[in-house]
Amino acid sequence: MKFHVINDLYYKAFHAGYKARNDVFEIIKSDFPDFNIYKFYKIPVKDSKFRLKRILSRRFANYTNFLTFKKYVSELGSDDVVLILIPFESLFEVAKAVYSSLYHAKVKTGLRIIMMIIDLDSIRRRGQINPENEIEYLNFADILISQNEEMSKWLSGHGIAPEKLVNLNLFDFKLHPEHKVHGVGTDILEKNIVFGGNLTSEKAAFIYQWKPKFKTKLYGINLNKGEIHENMEYLGVFDPSNPTMDVSGISFGLVWEGNSMDTCTGLAGQYLKYSTPHKMSLYLSQGLPVIVWEESAMAKIVVENNIGFTIKSLNEIDEIFENITLKNYQEIRLNVQKIQDRVINGNYLKNAISKCISKFNAAELQNSVK
Question: What is the mean pLDDT of residues 304-321?
Answer without folding.
Answer: 97
